[in-house]
Hints:
There is one protein chain. By secondary structure, this protein is mostly beta strands. The protein has a single domain (about 10-120), classed as Deoxyuridine triphosphatase (dUTPase) (Deoxyuridine 5'-Triphosphate Nucleotidohydrolase, Chain A). The protein has 1 helix and 10 strands, in the order βββββαβββββ. It has one helix at about 65-75; strands at about 10, 30, 35-40, 45-55, 60-65, 75, 80-85, 90-100, 105, 110-120. It has a 4-stranded antiparallel β-sheet with strand order 1-4-8-6. It has a 4-stranded antiparallel β-sheet with strand order 2-10-5-7, with no helix packed on it. The two termini are about 35 Å apart. About 20% of the residues are buried.
Amino acid sequence: MSEAPPLPFRRLADAAVTPARAHPGDAGLDLAAAEEAELAPGERGAVATGLAVAVPAGHAGLVVPRSGRALREGLTVANAPGLIDSGYRGELKVILVNLGTESVTIRPGERIAQLVIVPVLVAAPDLREALPEGDGRGEGGFGSTGH
Length: 147
C-alpha cells in the first residue's frame, strides 16, 4: 500500500478546528463549524469551517454527513457528497439541511461533516453513435430492474 500524500490546510478564522480522525484508520476527517448557525426543520444553509484545503492532484475531497447527527437530529449534507476539486483553494463550507422535526443549533467547534480524500480518474468525454454492449440493464428506463 502506498503512503497517502500530505493534506495541507490553512486556517482562515480563529474559530477553525484542525480536521482530525476520531480513531486511527478512520476514512473521514471530522470537519467542525467555525460559526454559529441555526437550521429550522426543512431549512438548509452553508456553514463555514474557517479552513481552506489543498486536495492533492489526482484526488478529490468528498464531504459526507456524520451518521450520528443524521440519526439524532436529521442533520445531513444537502449535496452529499459535496465535492472539493484539487484546484479549489477557497473556504470549505458545508451545505447542511435539517431533515428533522426540531430546529438544530450548530455552535463553533461542533463537528458537522466528514472529509474523505479519494483518488480519481479524469476521463475525457468521448461522444459516440453507439455504446459498447452492457448487461441489459437500462433498456426499460431508470429504475426498471425492480431492485
